[in-house]
């Protein structure tokens, strides 16, 4: 039988601290070649003069070293869960910065996390709760996000569910051809990567726990004969509603999922995107 090994939090400092500023990682950014991580501001400033890793001198792209680094949201969430005070202080600094130096009109283009408006308990590290989600189709990308020509799909999903799983779920339910692209997003012009999880979205975008988390999607056909225009597929008509799990919003019903729970250890919570059937067992259609 396997036992548990207790570690002091400070024993993990070497994995969650930046070797350039020697502080805890903020906007963690990882070098793809060697997997060393740094604060985004620190590594970007370093790459202005050098094209090597500050830790191991690994050679990056000679002329465009920025192509070899990538934002690491998983690592950043681990840092915030291990050190809640770091998250609290960072949100406070961002609010003060934007209050002193930014025009209000510019703030609307930033995510709540960038504005410092994410609540302190967003990275509480709790688990075993299902998140209320509403999937809303947008047939016109230029229309407001709240336009709903097709009834939304209400679901209860685990916080580790990824956009890749939702993509497969929607593609199968709508029986869309393989050459049709599915775009998933929370705000305009910000398509979500298939590796993003529900938890990542909750920690990046503002969410009122008294209502379902709104996730929008659109189906786009590839260009024809070299045309740059993409055609949106309207699936509101001609589809068997039995396969869509459509429900009309009942305003008298509470969609609150209660206290939002998150994963205690993201390092051991991995779901393979090709095992949709296993994930479906954790999802409930309201």
Automatic annotation (TrEMBL):
<feature type="domain" description="RING-type">
    <location>
        <begin position="18"/>
        <end position="57"/>
    </location>
</feature>
<dbReference type="Pfam" id="PF16207">
    <property type="entry name" value="RAWUL"/>
</dbReference>
<dbReference type="GO" id="GO:0035102">
    <property type="term" value="C:PRC1 complex"/>
</dbReference>
<dbReference type="GO" id="GO:0000122">
    <property type="term" value="P:negative regulation of transcription by RNA polymerase II"/>
</dbReference>
<dbReference type="Pfam" id="PF13923">
    <property type="entry name" value="zf-C3HC4_2"/>
</dbReference>
<dbReference type="GO" id="GO:1990841">
    <property type="term" value="F:promoter-specific chromatin binding"/>
</dbReference>
<dbReference type="GO" id="GO:0008270">
    <property type="term" value="F:zinc ion binding"/>
</dbReference>
<dbReference type="InterPro" id="IPR032443">
    <property type="entry name" value="RAWUL"/>
</dbReference>
<keyword id="KW-0862">Zinc</keyword>
<keyword id="KW-0863">Zinc-finger</keyword>
<dbReference type="InterPro" id="IPR013083">
    <property type="entry name" value="Znf_RING/FYVE/PHD"/>
</dbReference>
<dbReference type="InterPro" id="IPR017907">
    <property type="entry name" value="Znf_RING_CS"/>
</dbReference>
<keyword id="KW-0539">Nucleus</keyword>
<protein>
    <submittedName>
        <fullName>Polycomb group RING finger protein 2-like protein</fullName>
    </submittedName>
</protein>
<dbReference type="InterPro" id="IPR001841">
    <property type="entry name" value="Znf_RING"/>
</dbReference>
<keyword id="KW-0479">Metal-binding</keyword>
């Amino acid at each position: 039988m396997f036992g548990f090994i207790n570690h002091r939090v400070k024993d993990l400092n070497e994995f969650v601290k930046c070797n350039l500023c020697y502080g805890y990682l903020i906007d963690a950014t990882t070098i793809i070649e060697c997997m060393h991580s740094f604060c985004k501001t620190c590594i970007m400033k370093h790459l202005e003069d050098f094209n090597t890793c500050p830790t191991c001198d690994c050679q990056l792209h000679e002329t465009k070293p920025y192509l070899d680094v990538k934002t690491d949201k998983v690592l950043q969430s681990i840092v915030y869960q291990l050190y809640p005070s770091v998250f609290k202080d960072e949100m406070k600094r961002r609010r003060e910065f934007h209050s002193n130096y930014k025009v209000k009109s510019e703030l609307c283009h930033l995510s709540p996390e960038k504005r410092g408006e994410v609540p302190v308990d967003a990275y509480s590290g709790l688990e075993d709760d299902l998140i209320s989600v509403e999937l809303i189709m947008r047939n016109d990308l230029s229309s407001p996000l709240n336009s709903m020509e097709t009834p939304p799909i209400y679901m209860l999903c685990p916080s580790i569910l990824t956009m890749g799983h939702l993509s497969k779920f929607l593609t199968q339910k709508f029986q869309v051809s393989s050459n049709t692209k599915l775009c998933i997003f929370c705000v305009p012009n910000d398509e979500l990567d298939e590796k993003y999880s529900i938890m990542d979205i909750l920690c990046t975008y503002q969410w009122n726990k008294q209502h379902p988390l709104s996730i929008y999607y659109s189906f786009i056909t590839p260009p024809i004969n070299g045309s740059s225009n993409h055609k949106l597929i309207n699936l509101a008509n001609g589809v068997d509603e039995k396969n869509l799990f459509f429900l009309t919003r009942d305003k008298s019903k509470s969609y609150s999922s209660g206290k939002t729970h998150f994963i205690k250890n993201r390092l051991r919570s991995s779901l393979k995107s090709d095992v949709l059937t296993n994930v479906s067992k954790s999802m409930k259609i309201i």
